[in-house]
Amino acid sequence: MKKRYIALIVLAALIVIVIAALKIATGVAKNYVVEHSEELIGRKMKIENVEFSPFTFTVTVDDFAIFEPDGTTPFVAFEKFRINVNPTRLIAKEISVSEIYLKGLYTRVAQRGDLFNFSDILNKFAADSTADTTAAKEKPKVDTTAADSAQAMNLDPTEALGGFSVAIENITLEKGNIIYEDLKVGSKIHIQDFSVAIPAVYFSNKNTDIGVNLKFANGGDLGIKVQFNMKTQDFGVNVTLNKLALAVAKPYLKDFINYKDFEGTLGVDLNVAGNVNDVLSSNVSGTVSVDDIKLTETSGKAIGVAHVGVGIAKANVNEMDFRVDSVIVDGAYAHLDLLKNGKTNIDILLEPLNKPAKAAPVDTTAKDAPKTAEKSKPLKAVINKLQVVNTNVSASDHTPKQTFNYKVSNITVNGSNINFNTPCTINVSAAFPEGGALTVKYKGALSDISTMDAYISVKNLALKHFSPYSHHYTGYPISSGTMAFASENKMSGWNIESKNTIDIYNIDVADKDGTTDPEYTVPMKVGLYILKDKDDKIQFDVPVKGNVKDPEFSYLKIVWQTVMNLLIKVALSPLKVVGNVAAAGAGVVGIDLGKNDEIYIDPLASSFTSEQFAKAQKMVEALAKDKKLKMNFVQNFNMKKTVEAYKTHKLKTDFYKATQNKTTLNELDEKAIVAIEDKDSAYAAYAAEHAKELDRKTMEKEILAMAEARNQELLKTLQQQPGVTKKNVTVTTAPRGALTQKKAMYKVQIDVQ
Q: 590-752 — its CATH code?
């Protein structure tokens, strides 16, 4: 019994001695490292406490810091580090770590060019390594880096550790702070509340889950979730970035653009799935957005956008497959300034990029023979939905004697199935000042212009805004006038067929400015008087045909030559031109302006002509002078006659669509339909067969719908005129029983509010 007690006492004493030795050893090690830190790493260090618990095999380090070369400013520091291992699991051939905990990590990285605030530490280690290498006898080695890396990637973790498995659990990092400063450009990125949570790391065929969360001091937070399988090397990553303040990039933008200020936020929610051995084959999906982007130029003007959102269905670099669900642009605004020196605001903005680059040194070393390039995979890219709304663009031209300022507002772009290789559809619309409108319809493959089918329409363009150019080139400022333009362009192979019509109404110029020296001497008043018909209208067509690959072909040259031919004819035989125009008269287009309080219309027309818009705008000018006035534009026509005319028009329209294989029509098609003669044998046969299919009541409803559409279009235009409000101008249609007017017209009723 005594021997047993003695053995227990000896064992207890040994345990106490070992524990004491371990505790003393940690203290000795701590003191040695702190006292000799400058010899070891070239920097001062601080360690408040190091503890080892032999019962739980836990090592704890408190208040650790490595200082900058000044010996007082922290470079890397943390409040507490703790690691717990289980040595008993070694018997079961398992390396077990039950906890790794790090609190209050702080690090500051400062860079100036190629130097960092830790370069001295690296240089010291490099010097020590060089000394050791010089002392040892070098032996030639075969470079097996690539093979070793490939083997390591595919090596079973258990085999790599000699049959031992590894289990690491409860990895936690909390309340970290990381600062990066680029002293050369003056940037600073501060990451706050940096945290990492990893429940367990598996070196087997199980997924390791990793969670990272952090905040940026200037605004924004980042969350990263990772799943990784050590054995298969498969991974899945989710990145969520919320309202990152893009102002952090301002110092770096100076290398690319010349600007005054930049602001905005970035949001990301992306999922990436793939394998470490083939990262380029990873599939990416999710959303990316920027909001409240504003780039202020040195002039004080700004370019920006309220929101841009991109939904990514799939992005795979290796397969060259990029599928975008949607691209939404809302509230974009921009401007273009042409300065007197010929430069634009874009040139000034991009001045840093336009500086000549330094010549790169010539490589005179021998080069391997060029390898045959592998055939690249075809690009598969598609945008299922494109939408641009609430966008405005303004322009200022300072090169004329009088500055030209213009704004295009409410720009809208809608597209679907947009890709590079197959035909797609893109529609564009925009508003011009004083009720003008632009419409563009494009069909075709973006990569092949030979498939293009484009239609452009400009309506009610107020010409007085372009007076600075007229004044600069001719000396005559434009005082009034509106223009309409329609252009239909089709490509067959590389052959283009374009139909263009220009319609100018009520254009007038003021007296010539005697103080200016215009570039061209043109008698504008006489020329316009000769060109106008009796209804104050100038109209001409410009057909264009040719092969766009022909070096001699020029679209603009043909248009300009047509205009010049018209002017030459006017100069050579003005009386003949005037006679021809007068003979044709307004009857050619079916318009009669009538009395001062009447606007004659075509009840079958879907929209207004330039002269109709102009006369209506002229009528409401009185509202700006007398706020008590109120105007009601009442539309009237003969329903019985209109139904008969509409029936004929519908039959001709259906006949035209059937024979021309068209489903939608534009202004040029409407002109072609009007030109169909009643006696045309093919049309007559078609009408005889289909006339009974048209129901009178249905046609009356459609006529009234067209009348209401005209009312809304006229009201929308008038409400943009000075002095017009929602209360003092109304546009209506006469009651159904009163639709007996011989001539279709809008008659203005004036009242006092």
A: 3.30.1330
